[in-house]
Every structure is written in structure tokens, then in C-alpha cells.
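Deviation from plan, reported transparently: zinc ion complex.
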Amino acid sequence: MIIGKPRTESTTLKALKFLNTRMSLSEEDKRYYLNLLKGYEGEIMFDSMTEKLECDCIILNDLLLEVNNSTFQIDTLIITSEIIYPFEVKNNSGDYYYESDKMYTMNKIEINNPLNQLRKNNSLLNRLLHLLGHKLPIVDSVVFINPEFTLYQAPMDLPLIFPGQVHRTLQKVDATQSKLTRQHKLLAEKLVSLHMDDSRFSKLPSYNYHSLRKGIVCKNCHSFLVSISGSACICQNCHTKESVTEAVIRSANEFQLLFPNEKMTTGLIHDWCKIVSSKKRISRILQKNFKQIYLNRWTYFK
Ligand SMILES: [Zn+2]
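Because the crystal trials were delayed, the predicted structure below was used instead.
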């Protein structure tokens, strides 16, 4: 097993996480954020199982691809020599029921049927593979990873994998006599090169520099109750310690992600971090850890 593309938090999820600590999100934005977070946690759970595969395969996590002006996202793609396996990972918990190709909560509220997503993805992936000159058959499925999930009345012939079946499904993949060739590896590399960053599709709440709370947040509990003692930042809420250097770098990265078009200057990061009183200290940390760019008579960092 080779991990051809590791999973990382999407730009959207990261931005929402930062915004959630620095401003108050609307109910709707908060729900969206928590949904993304839950989905991501489910994918991590699935990763912990796919990482145990021993057969000759390549795993690509979290691909965002485009074909014929349609974008589609694949949570996990496993390439073996004979079959390509896309998985749509769902972290729903609680009880649901299935009726006439639709999924409902027990209160009869219809939720998105992930099979619709799967079918759409299947046809787009098929088209893309065809364009890339590959004829591998696709065997896709929806994985419900949360052990607290139940779906009543689900027809047996649907490509749904329930929590108690995930392990066995992967065992079946593992049991295939897969022998990857150079072609498979090139395909994997090609798909990774076609992956797009999600930021241009994200729907973030509107925010600006002045509306966000300034300060260094604890890397562990995200509280603002961080104080500086010598070369360390100490959280008064959970007692986590972090070096001032690390904390400033982390905060500067956060600033860059939230304001990609803003030029990062010592003055801005000094204001952003708030609790580091010495501007010189901020300047030294930025000089050492970011690329310094000179523009006319002033300097900024990248
Ligand atoms: Zn803390």
C-alpha cells in the first residue's frame, strides 16, 4: 500500500476553524462548519483502516477533480491493478430509513441520499479515466463509518457499506492479487496533479480584518487565555505550553490563510498576535521563518 495523496484539512475547514474562534458564526455557518468537521473526522476514521491494507495498491485521499466543467470530489480512491475503488465516506450517526431511493431521518425529514453523489461521481470519473486513456472498471460505494449509524429498509443490492462491514470490505480488497504496473502509478500521479484546491468553491461567511478578534489562541483548546512567560506561551485554560516562536509562526500562517491577498508585515502580525509586546521579536521570528520581500521602502513576508 502506498499513500499517493495524504489527507489534510481542506482550506475551507481550516478557515472556518479559525473564524469560529475569532468571530461569532451565524447558526447556519456554524452548522456548516460542524458538518464539515464531522465529515473530516469520519474520513480520518476510514483512513486508519485503509492504511492497514497490505496489497499492492495506491490510496489517494480527498481528490477534487474537474471534467467537462463539472467538479467532483472523491473522499478515498484505491487503485489496484484490476479495479479502481472510489469511496464516499459518511459520518452520520443515529437512525435513518430508506424509501423509494430516498433517505430520511426518523422524523421523516429527507436528507441527501449519498448514492446520488456516488452516481454522479461515477460517471464523471469514468469520463476522466477515458480521457486519460484508462479502462479500469470502477467499483464504488458509500461507507457509513460511524458505529452509531443505522439505516432501516435499505435494499440489499445498493453499494452501501455499513459500520459492521467496513473491515470485511477492505479485507476483500486486500485479498485481490494486485500487481501494479508503471501505468497505474502514472495514473495516480496524473490524478494527484489534477487535484484542485477547494478554496475557490468554499462558501465562507464574510469577514474582514477589523471584525476578527486579535491574539494568539491556544493550539490545544483554542482559547485566547494565552500569556507569555519568557520564551513560552502558556494557556491559562488548559496549561498547554508552546514556544513563542512556534505560536507566532502558527498565528502568521493563520493570518495568511484568512487573508491571502494581504501583504504580511511585521506591523500587521504584531497587531494580529496582540500579546507579544515587542515588535522586534515579531520581526525576528518572521525574518527567520518566512521569505522576506522588499518592495520600494518597505518589507513584507511570504
Ligand atoms: Zn489551552
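The pocket of zinc ion is lined by residues 218, 220-221, 223, 235, 237-238, 240 (CB under 6 Å). We consider this an acceptable substitute for the interim report.
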